[in-house]
Structures are given as C-alpha cells and as structure tokens.
TrEMBL record, chain A:
[4Fe-4S] cluster binds at C292, C352, C355. SUPFAM superfamilies: Aconitase iron-sulfur domain (SSF53732). Belongs to the aconitase/IPM isomerase family. LeuC type 2 subfamily. It holds the Pfam family Aconitase. This is 3-isopropylmalate dehydratase large subunit. Residues 7-403 form the Aconitase/3-isopropylmalate dehydratase large subunit alpha/beta/alpha domain. The gene is hacA.
TrEMBL record, chain B:
This is 3-isopropylmalate dehydratase small subunit. It is an enzyme of class 4 (lyase). Catalyzes the isomerization between 2-isopropylmalate and 3-isopropylmalate, via the formation of 2-isopropylmaleate. It comes from Meiothermus granaticius NBRC 107808. One of its GO terms (molecular function) is 3-isopropylmalate dehydratase activity.
Length: 416, 165
C-alpha cells in the first residue's frame, strides 16, 4: 500500500515509514509565533526553564494588532522586540505583513518542510506542499525548546479539483465549495490532500495558498496541494514529494471547477456556503479586502479591475489591507493602489487588520460586512450580532460598488 | 455541588473568548472574566470552580488561541465532556491539564444546571443515584497529565511521552 503526501513528509522526517494513526516525534523547520500569543509563549518557555534550541528556526511576526491599538498591546510588542534580540530570533515588525504570507515570501516555509505556527491558518503553507499546522502556545513553546513536536500521523481526505475555473469564479469560490462539501468537522484530525487536474494545474501559488488556507475550516491538521504548474518553477521539488498512486484515503471528493459559481459563506459558520445569487441584494456597511486568504497582489488586481473608473457606493466603507509590505510595494509600483484609492477605498497597514475584530475596522451592532477572510463566527469582527459574509475579492469589489452583495457580472448587467 | 454548563454543537474559540479580550489586549489578570462574554454572559460571573462544561460536536473549532481554554482553566475548569473536539483545541486542553472526555451518550443525558460529581482519575460521573463511566483520553496523554502537564513531563525527561531518546 502506498503513502499519502502527509505520510510521505512525516516518513521522510521520521526516518522510517509511518502511516496514519501512528504517533511520531519529528524535527520542525520553523516555529512561527504571532504577536497575540507571544506573551503566553514566553511564559511557557520560562516554565520549561528553556530557550529556543535553534534560534534561527523561530520567527515572531507582529501582525495581529499592528500597529499597536492600546498600551497593553504596545507593551507586549515591546517585549517581543527585546526578547527577539536577546535570543537571536527573527522578529518581523509592524508593517511587514501577515505571518503566513511573510514566511512564504521569506522562503522560511518550503515544499516538503514542516512549519508549526501559533495560528490555526498555518495550513496555508500546504499550498506549496509544506506540512503546515497550527498549535497553541504550549505546543509551540515545546517545539521551540526541543526543535521537535509530536504528531499523530493523519488520515487523508483526497480532494480533486478538476478543470479550469468557470468565468467569474476564483480559487476562493473553489475553497468555499470544498468547505461546504466537507463541512466544518469533515476533516478533523486529517490531512486534506488537494490534486489539481485537467487544467486546474494552472492555479498559481497565490491561489493554492487560498485553498490550503481554508482547509482548517474543515478541521484539518494540514492541507497539502500536490506540486504542479507554477510551483515546479518556483521551487526545487524533491522527487519523493508526491503521494503514491495506491495511497489509502479515508474519503475522496471531486470538485469540478468548470461548473463552479460564485460562492459566499453566510453568518455565522464558514461551512454555511451558498451561491451569491442566494443572498444577492443584501445591503452592506463595510467591505474588507485582505487577510492571509485573499490579500495578495493578484487579489488586489482583481479588485482594481472591477473598481477602475467606478466609485464605492455612498455609505459603504471599503478597507483594503495588503497581506505584506511586498504586496503593498508591488501594488504601488504597478498603479493598482491609485485605482483603488480613486474609487474611494481606504488603505491599512499590511497585517491582519480587522479580521479578528481588534482594530482597524471593527463592526458596530447590526452592521454587515463582506470580507475576503476565512471566518465569520459570531462576534469575530466586533459586535456579536454584526454579520460577516465571506467571499472572493471579485464579489467583494462588486459589492462595494453596488452597496449590496452582488457579482461584477450583475453590475455590468451581463449575467444570464 | 458542581453543576453542568451545557452548550450545543460547534462552540468556537471566538465564542469561548472573543479575540478582543485576549490577555494581551486586556491584561493577564482579567481576560478570563470575559469567557463566553458574548455567547453566554451569565457564565463567567456564576461559574464555580469544579463546574463541568458539556458540549456537542466539533467543540472548540476555530483559532489556535490557547488563552481560550486557559480562561476556562483560570475560572477553575478541570474537565469537559463533549461529543467531539476540534483538533487544536483538544491538544490545548490536554496541554493545560483540562481533561477532554468524549462521550456523546453522556452529553445527551445531561441537562444544563444538573448537579453532578466527577471523579477525574476514574472518569466516574454521578448525578443523583445515576453513574456514568467516561472513557479516559489516550494513554500517552495521560502519561503527561500524570506528571502535572506536558511541560512538566518534558522538563523532567527531556523528551515527549512515547519518544525513544
Ligand atoms: S489575517 Fe486573519 S485569519 Fe489570517 S492570520 Fe491574520 S487574523 Fe488569522
């Protein structure tokens, strides 16, 4: 019997063949810590009376509340900088961007590697076939202190994306469709292994990161996209980094990209996915484009193409927050930003922005937001009864122009 | 006597502790007072140490924030009985020394406000004259818990439970 991609990566690292259900202790390549749990992380290391075993393998990213929103946060972030200096660990400071995007850009997450993050969306690294998984402060501190972590080798759900994306749809729609099909606990403790075939290989790195990002919303431990297309040009891919033909899967699902329609995730659960047509006309107060799901250059390009020559609807606030300083720089250089600003969008510092309701665009009671992010839980972005609809950058842009949920095609009056 | 606080399916980490009440937003000494602040405001003010949390499917889905279960532990929580758990939350519970019992039938049998007694070590739950037997978590987790926590275990042995040095 062959091995899945997750089994391949963990076997390679364990130095022996391991299969779903076994416990392994493996070395990790990078331990990623975000600002909001850094304090707990430091405390746990103190309890262990330990310092990072390999300081170069620990990165701290100040992104969840950046710049600081109050004195508590400012103090915590000051401590991060001092601690980083003291221990020789990398600190990515305010403005560098969202943890996952930064680790990808810095090539600290690489195909075939293992990255543990103190953030649940660490599955994102799977977009480039890097075993990325999220854990809490204790596990992360143990990984920093020991250079290792314990894992149960996961069972695998195979998701095959077939064909080219239907006009008007994006990787985000494909990702939301996957979560709808699998449901919020459909892949708990499991690896989601994504195969792109019959045209889907052409999905870019950015689009693959979007797919892998959402896999945790089905409960997955990691979400790995089998290397193909652009990934083969961007990285050296070890020959063992493919699942075997006769690998054993717990479940198999197929998604036909050529018949996909624009999707939206309706409050208050991510797997509450409907067609945009189902909620068309819903009035919105805020539109947010950004996050580790959809804050990359190609996302901003999609938004600019729709906003060009138009204005954001009166009474709607449109926030655009690039995922990283690199994205911001490129979007400035190629004129994308000017288009967005002329349309009436507001720009934020690269980072998480209001994604988790702490600053820079928190919602008032009763408000409605369309967001390109990945979670719409109750109270996530502010008031408990504010509503968050998750959608693609295209749908977000069209919604900002119309003032209600819609698609660019409907704006043009070109929909069937 | 300890009571049951019963919740439904899909209690997420934003329900347990909204991101804006993270320790690094409101201070280490206060964050636990916001447990279930939006979702069930009567919880934190009335919770008594030893009270048991009972929940449905996919308990703890969402963020990796360990400070969500940590808030519950600070209030005095020692055990949760649920139908199933989200992965990161489960690890966090164990790491914090909160016992995660998985027992769908028991969850269905318990009502909010029930007065119960739980013998943690033996996994014995009593309600009036009734007794429920809970299945303990896997052995390697218990091995760590027996030493206090996984942190204590690692500090003492320099390795993880089950790891050959
Ligand atoms: S952008 Fe949102 S989902 Fe992504 S890491 Fe930041 S807070 Fe988490």
């Amino acid at each position: 019997m062959g091995l899945t991609l997750a089994e391949k990566i963990l076997s390679k690292r364990a130095g022996r063949e391991v299969r779903a259900g076994e416990l392994v202790v493996v070395e990790v390549d990078q331990v990623m810590v975000v600002d909001s749990i850094a304090g707990s992380f430091f405390k746990r290391l103190e309890q262990l009376q330990a310092t990072p075993r390999f300081p170069e393998k620990v990165s701290i990213v100040i992104d969840h509340v950046a710049p600081a929103a109050n004195v508590e946060v400012a103090k915590a972030q000051k401590e991060i900088r001092e601690w980083g200096n003291r221990h020789g660990c990398r600190v990515f400071d305010v403005g560098r961007g969202i943890c996952h995007q930064v680790l990808i850009e810095e090539r600290l997450a690489l195909p075939g590697g293992i990255v543990l993050g103190s953030d649940s969306h660490s599955t994102t690294y799977g977009g480039i076939a890097c075993f990325g998984s999220g854990m809490g402060a204790t596990d992360i501190a143990l990984a920093a202190a020991s250079g290792r972590t314990w894992l149960r080798v996961p069972e695998t759900v195979k998701v095959t994306f077939r064909g080219s994306l239907a006009p008007g749809t994006t990787a985000k729609d494909a990702a939301l469709e996957m979560i709808r099909v699998l449901t919020a606990d459909g892949a708990t403790y499991m690896s989601i292994e994504m195969h792109l075939v019959d045209g889907a290989e052409s999905l870019t790195r950015s689009q693959r990161l979007t797919l892998a990002n959402l896999t945790v919303e089905a409960g997955a431990k990691c979400g790995l996209v089998v290397p193909s297309g652009e990934i083969l040009e961007l990285y050296p891919i070890p020959e063992w980094l493919y699942p075997d033909q006769d690998a054993v899967y717990a479940k198999q699902v197929e998604i036909d990209l050529s018949t996909l329609t624009p999707r939206v995730s309706v409050p208050f659960y991510v797997d509450n996915v409907e067609e945009v047509a189902q909620v068309r006309g819903k009035k919105v107060d805020q539109v947010f484009v950004g996050t580790c799901t959809n804050g990359r250059l190609d996302d901003l390009h999609e938004v600019a193409a729709i906003l060009k020559g138009r204005k954001v609807a009166p009474g709607v606030r449109m926030l655009v927050i690039p995922a990283s300083s690199e994205v911001l720089e490129q979007a400035t250089a190629d004129g994308t930003l000017l288009t967005l600003l002329q349309a009436g969008a507001t720009l934020g510092t690269p980072g998480c922005g209001p994604c988790m309701g702490r600053h820079q665009g928190v919602l008032a009671p009763g408000e409605v937001c369309v967001s390109t992010s990945n979670r719409n839980f109750k109270g996530r972005m502010g008031a408990a009864d504010a509503e968050i609809y998750l959608a693609s950058p295209r749908v977000a842009a069209a919604t900002a122009i119309a003032g209600y949920i819609t698609t660019p095609e409907e704006l043009e009056g070109t929909h069937a | 006597m300890p009571r049951v606080w019963k919740f439904g399916d899909s209690i997420n980490t934003d329900d347990i502790l909204p991101g804006k009440y993270a320790p690094f937003m409101v201070g280490e000494d206060k964050f636990h007072t916001y447990a279930f602040a939006h979702f069930r405001p009567d919880f934190a003010p009335n919770y008594q140490p030893g009270d048991i949390l009972v929940a449905g499917k996919n308990t703890g889905l969402g963020s990796s924030r360990e400070y969500a279960p940590e808030a519950l532990r600070k209030l005095g929580l020692k055990a949760i009985i649920a139908k199933s758990y989200a992965r990161i939350f489960y690890r966090n519970l164990v790491n914090l020394g909160i016992l995660p019992f998985e027992a769908p039938e028991v969850v269905d049998a318990l009502q909010d406000g029930d007065e119960v007694e739980l013998e943690l070590e033996r996994g014995l739950l009593r309600r009036g004259g009734e007794t429920f037997q809970l299945r303990p978590p896997p052995g390697f987790l218990l091995e760590a818990l027996r030493e206090g926590s996984i942190l204590e275990y690692y500090k003492r042995h320099g390795k993880f439970p089950g790891e050959t040095p």
